[in-house]
Write a structure and sequence with these properties.
With 257 residues, the chain is α/β, with parallel strands linked by helices. The chain contains 12 helices and 8 strands. It has an 8-stranded mixed sheet with strand order 3-4-2-5-1-6-7-8, with helices on both faces. Helix 1 crosses helix 12. The protein has one domain: 3-Layer(aba) Sandwich (Rossmann fold). 43% of the residues lie in helices and 18% in strands.
């Protein structure tokens, strides 16, 4: 069976995309799933958060997208997370410009992953905070989109842009693409606005909103500096438990297939 490919996307920065990608990868791996995490953000935060030093890499996802290295040369093992990683660093920022010249530029990631899809149960793609050519590559490669979002005033406005992009990619590049779910992150139940936006999301998107709520949690913020996913570094923390619950929800979604 081929891997489920999930793009973690939101063009807004600071909504918990990388935290979600790294901790969901580790939580799925803990459940016994074979997981590949793709760091598609030039900031390389998912790489560092997985315990891999982005400054020492000879090959990254940049080389993969431009056809300068095969997947086997790029892939590394995130030992403490229990998953494989296609790492990234600042070089990837140059790929935006260089990809424009290449044939099939939107499908470079999809083509690169095709050869290893049978090796994994899940492939997670951590996207940059923009609706760029890198994000379009992720959406072309993915079957489903996980959208982390903060329950704040501007969240719904940005969401309509993202849904528009997903629809365009579905129409022109990837007819299979669907929204897997919206994940409410950095949630503070004491905040009235958080509650209101959360209720709006549920009324607009219904069962496309994950039941799991990821709280504001200092352990989630601290873990990356140790290069360990929070679900391993402090499994008892509320943030870690939320990502374990999210992994259960996602596994339950795919079970009947």
């Amino acid at each position: 069976m081929s891997a489920r490919v999930l793009a973690v996307v939101n063009q807004k920065g600071g909504v918990g995309k990388t935290t979600t990608s790294v901790n969901l990868a580790a939580a799925l791996a803990q459940s016994g799933s074979r997981v590949l995490l793709v760091d598609l953000d030039p900031q390389g935060n998912a790489t560092m958060g997985s315990g891999i030093d982005k400054r020492t890499l000879s090959h990254t996802v940049y080389h993969l997208l431009l056809g300068l290295a095969g997947l086997a040369a790029v892939r590394v093992r995130a030992e403490r997370g229990g998953y494989d990683l296609l790492p990234s660093n600042r070089e990837l920022a140059g790929a935006e410009v260089e990809l424009v010249e290449l044939a099939g530029r939107e499908a470079r990631l999809k083509d690169a992953l095709a050869g290893v899809a049978a090796d994994y149960d899940f492939i997670l793609i951590d996207c940059p905070p923009s609706l760029s050519l890198l994000t379009v590559n992720a959406l072309t490669a993915a079957q489903r989109v996980l959208i982390p979002m903060q329950c704040e005033y501007y969240a719904l406005e940005g969401l309509s842009d993202l849904v528009g992009t997903i629809k365009r990619v579905r129409a022109h590049l990837n007819p299979q693409l669907e929204i897997a779910g919206l994940l409410r992150t950095m949630y503070d139940p004491r905040n009235t606005l958080s509650q209101q936006v959360s209720e709006q999301l549920e009324s607009h998107f219904g069962d496309k909103v994950y039941r799991t709520l990821v709280p504001r949690n200092v352990r989630l913020a601290e873990a990356p500096s140790y290069g360990v996913p929070a679900v391993i570094w402090d499994a008892a923390s509320k943030g870690a438990q939320a990502y374990v619950a999210l992994a259960r929800e996602i596994l339950a979604q795919v079970q009947p297939a």
